[in-house]
């Protein structure tokens, strides 16, 4: 580099995974790698009609600079949806921006930040720019273990970053009793909770567990998103935060992009103001539940012994573990040669990555191609297991 | 604050000016304080038609996640407009985001950053979050003085932030020979130039001076914006940067908001793809030139002796200086009581603020109200000058 750049920028490195996954854009590749919602779930007609109304109503206002906090009717909508005071709501340019703002406001170099094991890669990346020290909280297939939160572990932590609902990457949901225990321990130990909840509405059966926010509004920064219930290309998310943190987040937001586009905020509000989400979200739940079932069925048919996976109750992801000793990153190269892709699990860990884990996304792939792709992966994993066994014969 | 927050967030303070200016939202206030472009300049009908085409063409793509770099046809449009390789173009969520990304990539705590005297407040705020050490470059009413750039001054500077065209707040434009001298000195001394150019197209006569970018593409990060030539509520800007910096800016952008909304990018591209800017920009120039003239005429009629101002050749702002010893911030309180507002000059200085300076914006106010407002200000300044003279009689 010819120019002197910041220490944080120096540590940004190119992702090996991204290089491998570039080929997944080829149409012949069956990709379980993407994190995209299904375009079939976008309420296009409703959004088109809403846009026409925005132009008919007050186009000049929709195209002018506006308040950093966001479009008031949209903030009020969010406030009602979460039973929160509107003064706590800040509209963000996608919930990725909320991660950036929270990092800006909360993290100094070396600050302790508690994360799940594994956690959302986009959050680890956003936080990393501000050079925290991550501490991974022990977790199992239901999510983080509240009893792991000891005063020693949480001492001095700026916050605990939690994804209670259908977490990316694992698809797991934190049970009610763990939510209660988590909120109680966090309160006791003075730890701020950051609750990231893009998938909360996407329970396949429609049952929802109470948010951490609802259990302790003054101790939680809640992050929501319209990306999975409306459309991600609008880049609309929001943060609900205790007043003093809300104020700091707004100041950081102003320096970051002044405000989220007025136009997209008004289009979104016009789309949902009359109750569209009540009828629209159930159609997404049904679609994603069906897609998930296609994949679970195919996995049962094709996966060799020793490969395990969870059965998510909602969201867009299944988490798989190969037998210990196999490396999903190494196998990915061969998978891509056979025109199937997934995301290796390792990058989702802040420390001690599980190299045998991987993430499967299923909402944008047809039933036929899920079947084909899983069959190919099953065959490949079978070969990899056999090859590993041949290399390392079991001790007698 | 109950929660431990970052050092950068602690230094974010509430602006006294913003508190005073809150009252300017009252309709009876004649506000020369706003930095808003005129809504009469938004090409509403063209944007509405463009939006309809976006929905007709490929709505799913317009509503889906997309590449961090931006929508390729829009990037190509920008590249053609600036005769730059498309690989160097990154679309940002307004050019405020470009400031944030540049700061993220370039500034460590204590890094030297060179700025004009005065400079754009939004940039000072965005950079401040990353705790640089600002060094103000001596400037006069034509802009910064290239000969002030000595090796001692520029040693170790991460970049020099320049606004050559109709700078916010002063409205001044850097003459051609200074641009050449600036680029030559920067190259000689190894200083990266950051060229912020939201107003470049808004010369009242249509004459344009070459950008710093065009003079040394490998030594300049150029920031452009659609806010003043299309509509700010879309939050669309762009950065053109040398390859290695472009790559880092993209990585920082991905962590900041993944990408700028697909929807707004496509609407903007559909609006301008067939040459709209060629016919539209001249209408903005004419409007703003006329507005500027209203204000210059009114100033001539009403301002007392001792008050000076520049005559901008483009853009949205006039810079005024009251006699030394007067404080435009103190006088603002009285101005607001008389229902007229402006922005005091002091916050635009990184150091040694000129307390007698102020910024006047004129593009959103009618000719009648410009006349009324300037008359009130003229009266007020006359009183302030008289009061100051009474307090401090001139030495014999």
From TrEMBL, chains A, B:
<dbReference type="InterPro" id="IPR015424">
    <property type="entry name" value="PyrdxlP-dep_Trfase"/>
</dbReference>
<dbReference type="GO" id="GO:0030170">
    <property type="term" value="F:pyridoxal phosphate binding"/>
</dbReference>
<keyword id="KW-0663">Pyridoxal phosphate</keyword>
<dbReference type="InterPro" id="IPR015421">
    <property type="entry name" value="PyrdxlP-dep_Trfase_major"/>
</dbReference>
<feature type="domain" description="Aminotransferase class I/classII large">
    <location>
        <begin position="46"/>
        <end position="375"/>
    </location>
</feature>
<dbReference type="GO" id="GO:1901605">
    <property type="term" value="P:alpha-amino acid metabolic process"/>
</dbReference>
<comment type="subunit">
    <text>Homodimer.</text>
</comment>
<dbReference type="GO" id="GO:0008483">
    <property type="term" value="F:transaminase activity"/>
</dbReference>
<dbReference type="InterPro" id="IPR050859">
    <property type="entry name" value="Class-I_PLP-dep_aminotransf"/>
</dbReference>
<comment type="similarity">
    <text>Belongs to the class-I pyridoxal-phosphate-dependent aminotransferase family.</text>
</comment>
<dbReference type="InterPro" id="IPR015422">
    <property type="entry name" value="PyrdxlP-dep_Trfase_small"/>
</dbReference>
<dbReference type="Pfam" id="PF00155">
    <property type="entry name" value="Aminotran_1_2"/>
</dbReference>
<keyword id="KW-0032">Aminotransferase</keyword>
<protein>
    <submittedName>
        <fullName>PLP-dependent aminotransferase family protein</fullName>
        <ecNumber>2.6.1.-</ecNumber>
    </submittedName>
</protein>
<dbReference type="InterPro" id="IPR004839">
    <property type="entry name" value="Aminotransferase_I/II_large"/>
</dbReference>
<keyword id="KW-0808">Transferase</keyword>
